[in-house]
Structures are given as C-alpha cells and as structure tokens.
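Exercise: predict the fold of this chain.
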Amino acid sequence: MMDGAWFEQPERAERLWRRWRGDGLQAELFDRFAPTLAAALQHAPAPDRLLLNIDRWFETLGAKRTYYHLFAEAPHVLTPLLALLAHSQFMADALIQNPELSEILFDWRLLKRPRPTAELRRDLQRFLKPCTTFWMKIDRLRAFKQQEFLRLTALDVLGEASLPEIARRLSDLADVCVSAALEACHQELSAQLGVSGEHGLCVIGMGKWGGRELNYSSDIDPILLCADAPSLRGIHDPMLYLTKLAEMLVKALSEPMRRGIVFRVDLRLRPEGRFGPIVRTVSAALHYYENWAELWERQAMIKARVCAGDPRVGEQFLERISNWVYRPALSDTDFAQIVEQRVRMEAQTQSRGEYETDIKNGWGGIRDIEFPTQALQLMLGGKHPRLRTPNTLDALKRLKNARVLPEQEADALRDAYCFLRTVEHRLQLQYGHQTHTLPDTPRERERFAKHMGYSDPNAFEATLRRHREVARRYRERVFRSHAAPSALIAWENSNPLAYRVGETERDIAMPPIEDDSSWKTALRELGFSEPHRAYHILRTNLVGDEYGAPPPDVKRAFEAVLPELLIACARTPDPDRALIGLERLADAFPNRAALYASYEESPDVLIRLAELAQSPPLWNRLLAHLELLDMLFGEEIVAQGAKTREEHREDLHKRLQSCRSTNAQIANLTAYARREWLRIGARDLWGETTPEQTAQDLTALTETLLSCLWDICAPEVPILIVGFGSLGAGDLGFGSDWDIAFVTADDADVEKVQVFAQNFINLCQQLTEQGVFRPVDTQLRPEGKAGALVRTLTGWHEYYAHSAAPWERLAALRARPLNPESPLTEPFLQLLHQFRYGAPPTQEDLTEMQRLIHRALTERIPSAALNNHLKLGRTGQGTIEFLTHWLVVQHVSLPNHPPSLGTRSQLEWLWRQGIIDRADYEGLSEAWRFLYHLRNRLHLLFEPAPETLPEDERAASVAQSLSLNSAEELHALLRAHQQTILNIQQRFWGR
C-alpha cells in the first residue's frame, strides 16, 4: 500500500505503517482508509515529516478504535487533517498538543460554512461566557483564535478559500479578538480601580491589519485613540487609566501563555513611534500628523481602519485626517521620497544577500506592487475619492475602473499580488515564523514548490519569475518619473489617451478627427458604450456638422482640453452620460469657448463636472440654474463636516433681511433650498462627505427651511413644528418625505392657527412642485387624517394619555421639535418624554405593535418585492428601524433613554444597555448605514429612483459610484446585509 521510495528512511516508514495497522479488527478498519493515508504521503512536500506528524497525532487519540471506525466509514474526513499535517508544522504541533481541535476538521460542512464577522463575534461571546476570571477569558481567547486559525489554514491548504478571502478572514478574526480583549481588560481594570463609564478607547488598525490583508504570522499595528474628553468617572486623570488599559490590552494579546499568544502587537506606527504616548486624544493625534508627521506616516495612514473599541472616536479621527492624507496633488518631493524609501528597502535586502529570495522587499516583491499603488492613491485620491481604500487588491481594481491602469495590466498585477502573497503565506505556514524569504537550496526549493501545489519545481520557478517581472515592471513604470520634472507622467502603451498616471500631459497622441474608425476604437477602450455617439460630439466641436463649422475659438479651446475631457469622462461610472452631460452644459452656457478654457485652466472643475453629470436630478437642476455653477467649486464644497442649523439660519437670514415683500422672501428661500440641495447632493456624489454627514446636512437644511418658511407665512403666530420619522430622527435621505405636526399654546386662537398651518402646508406643496421641497406629510399627527391639523399642548397631552394607539409609541421615539427656540419646546418635550419613556408597554401593546409592524412591512409593497425592497419588506431599512424602536420602547425609562433619536444611536444604546449583543449592534448598524447610502445613491443616479437594486446594466454604475468593483460585488454585499437583518429579526420576532 505504501512505497518506501517516497521516504528518506523507508525502514522507519514501514515500521510505523505496521504499527498503525495493527492486527485483527484494527487492521481491517485501517485497510479501509489506508489509501487516503498513502495518497497524502505520496504527494506530501516532505513525506518523512508528514509520516512523523501522523504518528504523533495517532498517539494522541484516546479511543483509537472509535476513530478508526469513523475513518473507515468516511475516509474523506481525514483529508483536511492530512493537508494540515503535511503543509504546516506549526499547525501540526498545535493539533498534537490540543487533539480536541481535530474535531473541527472532521465535519466538512461546519468547516466550510461562511463565518461573517457578526457570527464570529457572537461565537466568541459564547466561548467566553462561562469564564469567571479575567485570566480564564484571556486563555479562552487564545483557544478561540487557535481554533479559527486551524479552520482557516485548512481551507487555505485545501484550496477552498482564495488569498483575499483568507487575508480578510484573518483580519476579521483580529478585529473580534482585539475587541473582546479590550472589553475584558476594561471590565477587570475598572473593577480594580473603581472606575465607571465607557472607556471610549478606539483601536485604529494600520498596515496589513488595517487593509484586511493579514498574514498568518503578521503583527497587528494599532494606534490607540480616545475622545478629547473621556467620559470616565471615579478617576482624577482619565488618560492615566486609558494608558493602563492600553498596556493591559497589549499584554493580554501578546504575552505568551499555555496556548501561546493571540497576536504580536507592534505600536511603532503610533505618533512619535516608540517614544510617543501609547494613547492620544483625537485632537492631539491630529495635531501631530498635521504639524510633525513625515511622508511615510501619511502613506501609512492609507491603511488606517477602525478595528475595535469605540467606533465614534475612530470615525471622527478618520474623517478629520482624510484631507491631510489625500491632498489635491502629490508634490515631486513627496513622490521622490516614496521612491527613495522603496530603494532603501531594496538596498537592505541586497546587503543581506536576499535580493532574489526576499519575496516581500526584494526584486519584484510584494512591495513593488504596494508602493506604486499607494503612490498613485496619494497622487490621485484627492481628486478621485473612489481611489481611497486601505486594501491593495481593491485599490488595483479601482485604479482599473478609473482607467488609470489598463485592464490587462491591472489583472496581471492582481494575479501577481495574490501569487506572491500566497508564497508569503506558505512560507509562514510551515513553522509559524514571520518570514518572507524563499529557501535557497535546490532541495528546499523543490519542497516549497510542492507546498505551492507544483509537482514540477521548474513550473513553479517560471511562474514565480513571471509574476515578479509583472511587479517589477509596474514599479519601474510608476517610479520612472523620479527622474522627470513632474511626478505626473504618461503611460507608454497602445492607447496613451486612456491610461495616464497624471492629468497634466499635453503631448498626447490622438488620431486625426477624420479617422472615425480609430477614434471609435479608442473611445470603446475608454469605456464608452456608444462610441459612435461620443465621436459625433467630438467631431461637431472640432469640425462641425450639417449646420456649419464651429467658431475658431471654440475649436481651439476644445482641441486643447480634449485629452483631459475624455479622461475625466472615462473615470466616471458612465463615460457616455458624462460626455453627453458636458455637451448639454456647453449648449446651455453663454460662451462655449470660455467654458472649455476654464476646463483647461482648472482640470479639477472638469473632473467634478464629469462626475456630477452622472446624476440626472442634480445635473438638470444645474442646467436650469447656471448661476449655481460657481458654488460647486467654492470652499464649502470641500469643507469638513455638515452645515449646522445655525449656519443655515445665518445664511438664510442674510438673504431674507433685505427682502421687502413676502414674495421676495419666498423666492430667496426657494433659491437657497435649490442651491443647498445641489451642494449636499454633489458632496455626497463626489465622496466629500459621509452618509452620516449627508443625513445631518439634509436634516439641518430641512429644519431651517420649514422654520423660516413659517416665520415668513405667520411671523406673529407662535407654533411648534414637530418632526416625525426620518426628519425627527435626523436620518433624512434624498428620497425622504418630511413628516410634521403642529403644536400651539393652550391660550391660542386654534382656528386662526389652523388657517395659517393649512396655508403653510399649501405653500410647502407649491414648493414641492417646483422641486425645492420634499413632500410634506402630516398624517403622523394625532388621529392622522381625521385629526385636527393643529393641537394645543393640553390636546396633545390628553391624546397621548388616553387615546394614542400602541404603534404611536414607536412613532414618538422619532419625534423632535424642529424650531427649538419656540417657548413651547420644553413643555411639549415633557409630555412627549412621559408618553414615550414613561410606563412600559403591556404585553398586549407589544403584540399589537408587532402586528402592525408586520403589516407595514408586508402590505405596503407588492408581494414580489418583499425580499428585495430596500426600505420595506423583510430585510429593508424599515425592518431595522421598526425592530430597533420595538426593542427600545420595552426598556426605556424617563431617567434612562437613548441620547438621540437616530437609528444607529438607538442601536448603540441598546447594545450598551446589554439588550442586544455587540454582534447584533454592529450587524444592524452597518446594514442600516449601507442601505441608507445605497438608497441615497439611487436617488442621485436615477430619476425616478428605484426602491430595489437594479438587476440590469445600471447596477454596474451604482457599484462603481459606491466605490465597489462590480455589480456582482454590490449584489453580494446587499445579500450579506439582508441575511444579517433576517437572522437577527428572526431571533427577536421568530419570523
């Protein structure tokens, strides 16, 4: 059954084989799975090593006969185990020291099942739940990491998971483990020191961890940040506590114990490196980066990602640091520093004699792909936010989609990067060492080729050489500009018009305009799906049409800007739409030649306009009001954060104070609304803002418009405008209706106020028809359509106390005064708080709420859309909101309720109260954010906006607009979030 020629010591192999086989029943059972063992030994990179590992593992089996029965009945269960024993001595030792881990490998279904981060986090919580002491938790954390490592390694060596999947899952595992360790440390240390409150510490992952690219033996590189004013109680110096907490976290993760370590921790990427404080506030860190950091730290910040701890702190930091990382351009000096840094790395590998064997830092190594890619991101990311990503493979895809890289080259780089990283993984898998160096003896290289799946070592060497050449060629082409006067250089390829690193080259070879065939080929390669139509637009501007030739100044200006114009269009999700939109703008513009000249003088203007042309609602608004063009390139477009209500009111006050009539005031308010809708939409489309900031901006604008409009209509009539739904919660999207209700004083003339309120609603409707207001809905007022439009404070109190339906408790959780300067605000909030946060609902109330929620999610849309409607249906945004409010209403009280009304804020409150676990909080919060962002983008890209994700070619444009790489990736991401929502709501609602 076994050939001794496979082994260096065949006598030992025969002896062990006979011992495994035994006699009697054991021999009969063994013979049934012996072919599986023999095949593994025959194909192993090092048969003798595998032989000894199998023997050592057999010795750990307590009930050998029982296992032999299992193997005889199902020999295939041995395949993952034998693969691990053959390819990783590191994991073989772990299996032999902890034989119970082998059980993981015997169930193929469990081994392969998807493990999203939320499920991983939930499993770890269950794993740690029985622990009664801190050190028990830390030991169990090591056991959990070891268990997951084993599972991932098995999938890797069996070829059941790709390199990107393994790296992502290793990084997710690090996120989960660090989060659990941080919470365990805080629980232990706060109890020791008598400290209470949330720690507010955030772990920013850097390097491969931040990029979700971890190796098997990677360190994790954290930066530890906290809020400027930590909310800890019971300690005089919160920073001292957080420093101790951080030190405790590092020790918990990296101190060797019985089961080894969790992860090695390297803090040298923090501000000031090893000499800097281990924890900094967000403001202190920003001050350091903006005033003292070197270029390599800016380059490193590309990889920054919130990995554990308080997400609010991390999001605040990354939002504020983004403009420092991604600037409008990369200077020649900075570009040269990146090149020199890579050259220094190569010199170090040469001095060690590892220039050819170091797969990471040597010739044609991983760094030859990573460094040029990061240089391109820094060079172009300021103008093209879609290029901002911490993941190298994702960056290559985005560079391809933006037509910075040719498709063929980008695909070759992806293959090379995956191959080189796989080589790195296999090197580290063997003994668990942090190495990047290939064996240098022929015998060891031959064995390593087998680890890579090559029976012919020459084939492996040829493949390795080919991929290293791809990496090196890429490095040389990007870095060649080190000797050039500018860091923005042109690619040398068959179509230099399509693929350029920069955007300032003028000497670009283009076909003569009469050569329609060559032009259509070039346009097709640029991504135009209708090259004949695009060519007609170009020809019209250069030669003319049946109506005559273009004016000479128009032709000269268009000819000068043509390369930049085509590349700007090509880097949008839909080049055809961009070019057609720019042509429509030129038709509408008073001086076409002056417009083209402005493009040449300010390429950024052209880039932004090409992007904006992707949005029919925004573009049509701009074409109808060209006076808004200047606003799109002012400082407020790229300003950080959202406008506040106070800023909106100040701007509107300046506009309205000089108006002499009501009509003039309304006209100015309308113009301001139109301007701000365009500003907010453009910022969202251009990636200048986050989804959270878009919601804040839209909400603040709406509050200001409504309160100012009331002041115009009835300045002497005191009223409180109450926002419900998304408006009240501060979660407004571009497609959200404005749900409002009115409150007046008890001594007011209600009939008179009703008249003013109705006039106000009528005027809102007129402005909606003009496209400057969203529809205003008053049906959430007491008694809905049948109820009075305006109620007094006492009327609201009586209704809430005696007549309100159970579902109105849910609606009240998102009710908020929109003009808080009104004297009615405080008394109304008192009665509102009493209603929504007072006595807990009865079981009958909860059942009725759930029944009405089910109806709202199933009866308001066609049955065919129940599973894919982005707002309603079983897995839409509305499901998250209803579930959140249903849970909140059961646990709130007057002294303890969510600090704000937004859905994500309420989810966070539920988590911090222990009502939902962190896995559910993160799963629902991320799903809500994704759906909110997706629905907003659909409203910007299509008119009318669909409420389901398109299944046709439009999905690719949506994906690219959201900085995703394909329609398939977008659909997969949506399905993953929908599954998360479904799993969680089924646990709480049972359906």
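Check your answer against the key: Strands lie at 201-206, 221-226, 279-281, 305-309, 720-724, 738-744, 776-777, 790-792, 816-817.
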